Amino acid sequence: MLPYKTIGDASAAIGRPLTAAETLWFNYSATKSDYFLYCHNILFLFLVFTLFPLSYILLELFFHKKTHKFKIQPKVNLSFSQTLRCYFDVMRMFFLVVGPLQLLSFPSIKMIGIRTSLPLPSLAEIVAQLVIYFVIEDYTNYWMHRFLHCKWGYEKIHRVHHEYTAPIGFAAPYAHWAEVLILGIPSFLGPAIVPGHMITFWLWIVLRQIEAIETHSGYDLPWNPIKYIPFYGGAEYHDYHHYVGGQSQSNFASVFTYCDYIYETDKGYRYQKRLLKQLKEGAKTSGLQNGGSQNMSTVDLKSD
């Protein structure tokens, strides 16, 4: 709750007129408690878990002919009932674990210094903090994910998430309740180390989940702008991890690829990429030698 009764009081306190964004924030948040504002995360997560994966389902339903060629494992198709079951399993975890965790974790948010006050952070500050959050989360998530692939961690916890060897968007948060808690730690570390405004925290939670859903979407869409982020892994990178399954000791990173490269846990993936490239070049050469009669679409380079 803001300690100002009017916009004039707020302007006097910060020593300048409020910006348009700050005026909107004042009008919305002035009479609302910090706890109420923090709990917006529950609504945001529910909407993200529901709507963003749905966009990929609709893409497959209405633009199947145009987008199917970008499906990473084109031979695997889940039925509507299987997809719906995955969504309801995720929602059950959301209401039993994620939601209550959000409700109970507010004291930690206050302790680390997430603020709701004016002035609002600049766009440059928000972007800088989000970059830091992604880097911190990616590094710590790498090691926790790698731990979950040890014999005990996989058999007792992580195998649930790997039930989907060809992941879909709804399966991004599909996991054992213990994994939800364990992998929640990396997401919290960034804001704990570099605390910012509640708006930045909201954006962080939403963007991280959207990224996870995109990574598990099962589609490597060429027009996706985040493909151009340096060292970004994406759906094709993480799909290999699911395709290999429980035996996977590769591609542990959640967002970027540098940890796997540094610690040499991407050797299997890089070998497969070289092999597929050789097959593609060989098929192209064979097609040219036969007068171009061979159609490259007959060579399934993504799923075999």
Order of helices and strands: HHHHHHHHHHHHHHH
Assign the structural class, choosing from mainly alpha, mainly beta, alpha/beta, alpha+beta, or little secondary structure.
mainly alpha
Relative helix content: 55-70%
Rg for CA atoms:
22 Å
> Can you tell me the residue ranges where pLDDT is under 50 for at least 5 consecutive residues?
292-304
Main beta sheet: strand number and arrangement? Answer: none
Number of domains: 2
Instruction: Report the β-strand fraction as a percent range.
Output: under 5%
* Count of helical regions: 15
* Terminal Cα span: 56 Å
Overall pLDDT score: 90
Number of strands: 0
Q: What is the molecular shape?
A: elongated
Domain Fatty acid hydroxylase: 131-265
Subcellular location: Membrane
Family: Belongs to the sterol desaturase family.
Pfam family, one: FA_hydroxylase
Topology at a glance:
Elements: H1 7-14, H2 20-29, H3 34-38, H4 40-62, H5 64-67, H6 80-104, H7 106-112, H8 123-148, H9 151-156, H10 177-182, H11 184-193, H12 198-215, H13 234-244, H14 258-262, H15 267-289
Helix pairs in contact: 4-6, 4-12, 8-11, 8-12
